[in-house]
Amino acid sequence: MSWFTNLPSWARWSLAAAVGMFVLTVVQRVSGTDLLTEEGTAQAMLRWSIPILLAGLGGLYSERAGIVNIGLEGMMILGTWFGAWGALNWGPWGGLAAGLVGGALGGLLHAVATVSFGVDQIISGVGINILAPALTRFLSERVFSGEAGGSVSQSPRVDGFGNFTVPGLADFLGTIRDQEIFWISDVAGFSRGFVAEMSWFTLIGLLTVPLSGWLLWKTRVGLRMRICGENPNAGESLGVNIYGHKYLGVIISGGLSGLAGAFIVLELAGLYRGGQTLGRGFIGLAALVFGNWRAIGVLAGSLVFSYPFGLSLVDFNAESSGGATRALLLVIAIALAGVMVWAQRSGKRGDAILAGLFAAIALVWYLGTETAAAWLPNTMPYALVLIVLLFASQRLRGPRTAGLPYRRGET
Amino acid sequence: MKRSWRNLLMLLAVFALAAAACGDSSESNDASEGGDDSGGEAMIGDGVNVGLTFDIGGRGDQSFNDSAAEGIDRAESDFGISFTEAEPNEDGSNRAELLQLQADQSDLVVAVGFLFAEDVRAAAGDNADTNFAVIDDAMLDFDNGAVPWADNIAGLTFAEEQGSFLVGAAAALKSETGTIGFIGGVGGFGLIEKFEAGYTAGAQAVNPDIVVIPQYITQAPDFDGFFAADRAREIALTMYGQDADIIYHAAGGSGAGLFEAAKEQSESSGSKVWAIGVDSDQFNTVSEDVQEFILTSMLKRVDVAVVEVTDAHLNGNFEAGNTVYDLSVDGVGYSTSGGFVDDIVPQLEEFKEQIIAGDIVVPTEP
């Protein structure tokens, strides 16, 4: 397997995606559904992945700077409110900017508490998660409840950015899809979901991935931020302003979470509504762990997590619903069987037995049902992270001092 | 260092508590207000306070709760009562406390929504001299022969299936593709299935071959489906993609997502698709941008129920147990705002007559 680990990360993930698509195509044939590789599924997945992606990248900046940010959810909530408020006053760009600033203010609060005052990072984050919904509700009562269509828990309708389609590419992929070649057409149809009728905000969200990778790993300020999370004392001895860079990391983290909130308001719901983030900040943290604290890994995590969810939203017709979601159980069984083989070959017998057991359970479940339970898609992100932690924990490596308080001159 | 850590933590805690306390909107309307409206004349409701307890969403939700708010406003001007409003916090964990708060200052407490059923039973036991009414729950003890839980508890329910039948007929009459959709907020607890059953029956009464695509956003006990506009939008776009040209929602606040999807689909495909609203006349409550896509709304006259239960209370006729508001008392119906269904009103009225006469029995289960 050394050839695989020697590949650059984008190539590794692309290869994994191609293999994943192959499994999906096979399962799709076996289960008699065509939704697993449909364009609509890809579009729903992409739309729903952006808030998770942005929150996960937010977590990346913060944890790379040595601060665990469990307050991503709260900062996202601030982003939803400020996003709606900005969009009402100045249109979509205003909403984007206001969401960013609103979230960044939440990040600033977290930074003041954890960096300057050394408050326990978990406690401060939980505090922000409690504060944010109450604060936005208070603000809604002041601002939205007077306007037509607004109330203490929701804003008037706001406009989104609008969609675009990449001209030649979408037609080209559409042509290949219509050839109905096994796997090739499935890949083309699914990929078309990434280039057809995509929102501009989605593009902005996707562009933050290479931008973050570049900023954190190729620039001086990125290196300085990362040393805050790895060995702040060594950084301090070299004259790096540790406090300042921790502040920067946490504020960017809040800003990205706020952007995630603004995306939910502008592109998914079309209005602010209390409680509409539904724990996506925490799923963002899960994507961060899944992606091994790397920008492209977070992207992969957010896509994998939102796939079952997006699928469940399009998974119905006049006769029944939940048929394609059920087929996912077979995908999981196959994936776990793969893990079993891999664990056996690397000499981890305990892991192999465990994976085989889970694979058998998923297979029996698949064979025993006609439609999947409605709660299944919502649980999958958490189940996936547990599986990844279970079998790949030795390969995961987060920033060494994330979560530990840092005081200048104390070691 | 230790000291500042503690100070900040306390500050944060105080902050959070203060903000959380602000979260509950509990506003009181002056008792004299009603009297002023009547020009100083003594009214039957003078000195009587009604506690209206909204469900999540509250006044301004453009749907269910707004309808109740309209009712209490009318009761205020008609009877001269005063009223207090309350709305639970976002996770609905303080319902019991709000009911007790309302009972302390009111003679009649109206709880808007079946989610209050359990808490009202407890509150009614503790406050024997206050009357309680719950919207959308029969408030009957079905295990012991469907008797009222107590003498001071009334349940106000609606024949939603009858109103849904009429909008289902309207959808079938207006559909050009022969495919229509239904989005339910939360399935699995019986209430929303009534909407689906009536809608499907009404559509099939017009066109036996019509295809109805039903989908629920969440399943009980997950009640997020009533305020998940984002998911409703995605589901609606998929339904429109499956050739449906009219979609009816029974999903409370999630309906905003359906209207958004109707606009988006109409603009991107160039052919107009429709949405049907629920509870309130949603043509009048949504923003102007999406108004033109609302064919009609299934009216559930929560306002009528609120006015009538207040009237009964004031006249000493408060009746424990279940009162059903159906087509015969105009407790449910359809709206004509926007004028999009004006041409089919005669047919709809005919169906209405037949239901009232009992010639058509509308099913309550799909």
Mean pLDDT of chain B: 86
Q: What percent of the residues of chain A sit in helical stretches (DSSP H or I)?
A: over 70%
The largest inter-chain interface, given as chain pair and residues per side, is: A-B, 53 and 57 residues
Strand content of chain A: under 5%
Q: How far is the N terminus from the C terminus of chain A? A: 40 Å
Assembly level: heterodimer
Radius of gyration of chain A: 22 Å
In the CATH hierarchy, what is the architecture of the domain at 37-319 in chain A at level 2? Answer: Orthogonal Bundle
Structure explained in plain terms:
The complex is a heterodimer of chains A (411) and B (366). Chain A has 411 residues and is mainly alpha-helical. Chain A has a domain at 37-319: ABC transporter involved in vitamin B12 uptake, BtuC (Orthogonal Bundle), CATH 1.10.3470. Chain A contains 16 helices and 2 strands. Chain A has helices at 2-6, 9-31, 39-64, 72-116, 121-143, 167-178, 184-192, 200-218, 220-230, 232-237, 242-269, 280-290, 295-314, 323-345, 349-368, 376-392; strands spanning 163-164, 198-199. In chain A, strands 1-2 form a two-stranded antiparallel ribbon. Chain A is globular, with a radius of gyration of 22 Å. Chain A starts with a helix and ends in a 19-residue tail after the last helix. With 366 residues, chain B is α/β, with parallel strands linked by helices. Chain B folds into 2 domains: 24-158, Rossmann fold; 160-300 and 336-357, Response regulator (Rossmann fold), CATH 3.40.50.2300. Chain B contains 13 helices and 15 strands. In chain B, the strands form 3 sheets. In chain B, strands 1-3-2-4-5-8-14 form a 7-stranded mixed β-sheet, with helices on both faces. In chain B, strands 10-9-11-12-13-15 form a 6-stranded mixed β-sheet, sandwiched between helices. In chain B, strand 4, helix 5 (117-126) and strand 5 form a beta-alpha-beta unit. In chain B, helix 6 (160-174) packs antiparallel against helix 13. Chain B is globular. Mean pLDDT of chain B is 86; it is low at 21-39. The interface between A and B is large, with 53 and 57 residues.
